[in-house]
Specification:
Blueprint (H helix, E strand, L loop, with lengths): L13 H5 L15 E3 L2 E3 L8 E6 L5 E4 L4 E15 L2 E5 L4 E4 L5 E16 L14 H5 L2 E3 L5 H19 L5 H21 L7 H12 L1 H13 L7 H7 L4 H12 L3 H19 L4 H7 L5 H12 L3 H11 L2
Antiparallel strand pairs: 1-2, 3-8, 4-8, 5-6, 5-7, 5-8, 7-9
Length: 322
């Protein structure tokens, strides 16, 4: 792999980036792109968690990573991106999906033109069925117009509709952009499950496994949400639903993106907030009602999950509603 020099964000000014003559930003302003080592603080469109750049200034980005997932779409020339030691060439019509927090580079080549989409994935994490396509969020996906022209064209069309919404005047642009992101994930996800994506065969079995047990795992989640106040152990719940403990632990984490104990505690904290804000029950009583064995463990978990103690949370809520 050849060595390339990082010209970085100093290749153009922030004003030049905002006022791209082909695709200027909907409105001027932002925090500006900044770095802490290789970590990039993304310059989202103010008031949103999205930014779409039209790249026409040959701006290069060396090794970096960031919170949002990145979708690279090439119109002319080509991009070179290196992700975890693997080099990708994104040609016209191609699309590259780079997962959140994955270290990568991006270099436009041969008078390259295209779009870079930066989208916060946390908005879709609570959609349970995304567990079926979690590998999309964990591995780079390169959709080539040469080898998969139908999928590349379909996703390209959705991206162009996303651009119209983002660069237009609709004040609901962020909502519309994320609705198109869901459409993209649905199309890529279905191709993944069907084994239609080249170089993605390794992920297909894992996804099919989750599809096979989708109904059972949904039932487990519903059971935990309605029995959170009871004693719940990994061994007892796995046996109740017909899984071995080891297998259930693995597949449950893949499905919910969290461990069994963490999931149960999240349910308990969710309902404890309702008791804290809607009743005058003591902290001890609430701790017992939501299934914690000791008030100390309740306080510890609540602080970890919310950044506040139960009593502090209640006081803050009362202050806000005065």
């Amino acid at each position: 792999m050849s060595n390339r020099t990082f010209s970085g964000a100093n290749a153009i000014t922030e004003e030049e980036r905002y006022m791209n003559p082909i695709r200027p930003q909907p409105y001027i302003g932002g925090t500006g792109t900044s770095y802490d080592g290789t970590y990039e603080y993304v310059d989202y469109l103010p008031g949103t968690m999205v930014r779409i750049w039209y790249t026409s200034k040959q701006e290069c980005f060396g090794l970096h990573y960031h919170q949002p997932l990145e979708i690279v779409q090439c119109e002319r020339g080509y991009y070179i991106s290196t992700i975890q030691g693997v080099e990708y060439k994104i040609c016209p019509g191609d699309i590259l999906i780079i997962p959140s927090k994955m270290v990568h580079t991006l270099f436009p080549m041969n008078d390259c033109r295209g779009y870079v989409h930066l989208l916060d994935p946390s908005i879709i994490n609570d959609i349970r069925s995304t567990a079926l396509i979690k590998d999309i969020m964990d591995k780079p996906i390169h959709i080539k117009s040469e080898t998969d022209p139908v999928l590349a064209e379909n996703i390209g069309s959705i991206l162009y509709m996303m651009h119209d919404a983002y660069f237009g005047s609709n004040s609901l642009r962020e909502l519309i952009v994320y609705s198109y992101l869901l459409q993209i994930l649905e199309k890529v996800g279905n191709s993944l499950l069907a084994g239609a994506l080249p170089d993605q065969k390794d992920y297909q079995n894992s996804a099919k496994e989750l599809v096979k047990y989708n109904k059972a795992l949904n039932e487990v989640c519903e059971y935990l949400s309605s029995h959170y106040s009871e004693h719940l152990s990994l061994e007892e719940v796995s046996e109740k639903f017909g899984f071995s403990t080891c297998y259930f632990s693995r597949i449950f984490k893949e499905y919910t993106n969290t461990g069994f104990k963490e999931y149960v505690n999240a349910c308990r904290i969710k309902y404890s907030k309702e008791y804290l804000t809607n009743t005058d029950l003591s902290i001890n009583d609430i701790s017992s009602k939501v299934g914690f064995e000791t008030v100390q463990s309740f306080n510890r978990v609540f602080l970890k999950k919310t950044g506040n103690t139960p009593s502090g949370f209640r006081k803050l809520y009362k202050l806000k509603t005065m």
